[in-house]
């Protein structure tokens, strides 16, 4: 195709333009979407591995886009980070999640994802403190999930911010564990409360003895370091039995429930009325 020269090049331009235009349009729409109240939080149940009891929910954001319908975070979170929209969006997510969780039965906890870009803000602990105070949610009911990429820069400010957050009485989880380049060294940089073992390990457990060995080793490591371990992406009964057998303390995945709107959670609370 290269040898056809400029003509070929030109024929690609409309496509490129269209993609660029679509991105610019999405960017412009994203900048207004918080103010226009277009985001919604869905909640995915978290369960105790041993008893299989409901222990909490993870908040997962969706964009109710006027043209494109309900968009998953994979389609806009990165753009929100690149454009700075994540600051306002992250604050909205924190306030909404705390407000929703405050109406749930007492022991049910809420987990909220923090993006690396939110750690560049100066007042993150203050923002979380304010969301807790406004919603009247006990700090012990809030867990913040961060990925290894937050610690990539690994500077003093990040670690200080993590301590500032933990001083509020919230817990901190290391998300997607095992997918980065130096997962183990990150465990040394901050005393996390929880390790969430990435779905990629869990989904291979039935057929791969290596994956089983890794999950077992991470669960043991967590236990030694005083951290709980959540197996992510548990889709089948076999996977559930395996992660439990190999020492994971908590489970999350389609087997237990998909992310759902806040209005549907009361059904689960009734099922777990014994709480
Ligand atoms: P994550 O934090 O690892 O969240 C778990 C993702 O796995 C969710 O995708 C969830 O729907 C999906 N999942 C859960 N159980 C299963 C399962 O059994 N099988 C399969 N195949 N998938 C499962 P989702 O909602 O599309 O979110 C994707 C990512 O977007 C999240 O990954 C997180 O990194 C980011 N994200 C979501 N919500 C937020 C948010 O409020 N703030 C920030 N900063 N990031 C968010
Ligand atoms: Ca997460
Ligand atoms: Ca995860
Ligand atoms: Ca993930």
From TrEMBL:
Domain of life of the native organism: Bacteria
Residues of the full protein shown: 534 to 808 of 810
Biological classification of the source: Bacteria, Pseudomonadati, Pseudomonadota, Alphaproteobacteria, Hyphomicrobiales
Name the record gives this protein: EAL domain-containing protein
Domain spans labelled EAL: 23-273
């Amino acid at each position: 195709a290269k040898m056809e020269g400029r003509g070929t090049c030109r024929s690609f331009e409309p496509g490129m333009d269209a993609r660029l235009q679509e991105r610019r349009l999405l960017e412009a729409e994203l900048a207004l979407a918080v103010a226009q109240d277009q985001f919604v939080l869905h909640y995915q149940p978290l369960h105790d591995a041993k008893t299989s009891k409901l222990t909490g929910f993870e908040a997962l954001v969706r964009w109710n886009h006027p043209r494109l319908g309900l968009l998953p975070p994979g389609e806009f979170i990165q753009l929100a980070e690149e454009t700075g929209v994540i600051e306002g969006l992250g604050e909205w997510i924190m306030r909404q999640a705390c407000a929703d969780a405050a109406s749930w039965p007492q022991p049910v906890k809420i987990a909220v994802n923090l993006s690396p870009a939110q750690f560049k803000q100066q007042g993150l602990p203050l923002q979380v403190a304010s969301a807790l105070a406004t919603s009247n949610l006990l700090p012990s009911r809030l867990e913040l999930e961060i990925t290894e990429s937050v610690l990539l820069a690994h500077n003093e400010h990040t670690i200080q911010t993590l301590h500032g957050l933990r001083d509020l009485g919230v817990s901190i989880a290391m998300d997607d564990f095992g997918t980065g380049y130096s997962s183990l060294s990150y465990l040394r940089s901050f005393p996390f409360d929880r390790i969430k073992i990435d779905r990629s390990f869990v989904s291979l457990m039935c057929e791969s003895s290596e994956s089983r060995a890794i999950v077992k080793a991470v669960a043991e490591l967590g236990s030694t370091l005083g951290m709980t371990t959540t197996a992510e992406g548990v889709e089948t009964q076999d996977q559930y039995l395996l992660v439990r057998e190999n020492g994971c303390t908590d489970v999350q995945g389609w087997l237990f429930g998909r992310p759902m709107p806040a209005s549907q959670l009361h059904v689960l609370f009734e099922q777990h009325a014994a709480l």
